[in-house]
Structures are given as structure tokens and as C-alpha cells.
Amino acid sequence: MPTKHLHRLLAFHAIVTLAAGLVLIMAPAAIPGTVDIQLQPGQFLLCYFLAAAEFALAYLSFYSRKLTDPVMLRLVAVTMIIFHGVTLLLELYALGDGLSPRIMANIVARAVIIGLFFYYGMVKLPKSAVNKPEQGI
Question: What pTM, to 2 d.p., does this model score?
Fold first, then answer.
């Protein structure tokens, strides 16, 4: 079945994003600290907002594993591509603005994630899921 690999990718994505959300709450300075961003306790709210987004993506990824409708799976894949694509662009912008080059590891990881969601969520889905203007995706 062409959706088997996408379902596995969604499960893996759910685990990773859930873990990232938990770290952002339990140790909010840890992830920003990997690229030399020092946050004070009063600034942790930004990490908590990001954790909320991570939890929402984890939920969407986890429960999308059960979807069989190619149109719905394509919608989920496009959502992940947009989220990670915009984040990748913002990380590149921050890199150009002086952020530590260590962010490149995250940029590469996002590029791989985008590629995987594009391949399994767009290319490998059945042709019945081809974009139709009336569907809006």
C-alpha cells in the first residue's frame, strides 16, 4: 500500500515533535542553548508557545497515521511541508543575521523532513489524490 511509508513517517514525526515539545517545557533553555541563544526564565514563554505548536503537530501526525483517504493524507503532508519549510527559511534568515552556524544541522534535518513528506505525501500517493482546484489542495 502506498500509504504505509507515509504512516510510518507520521508516527516517527509524532514521536520527535512530542519529544521536542516536552524538552521545550521541561528544559526551555536547552534547545535554544544549542545555537548559543541564552534565555532567562522570563523569556521561557517563547519556548512554551513553540511547545504548543510541537504538541499540535505531534497530535496531527499521530492520528493521521490512521487516515486512508489520499486527499486527507496529502493535506497533512502539505501542512508539514509548509511548517518545516517556513521554519527552515526563518532559520536561514537567523543564520544570516548572526545565529550560530550550528543551526545548519537543524536546517539539514528540516530539508530531509520536507523531502520525505513531499515524496511520501505527494509523489507516492495514489493518482486519485492529484490536486483538483475544487478541493483546494
Answer: 0.89
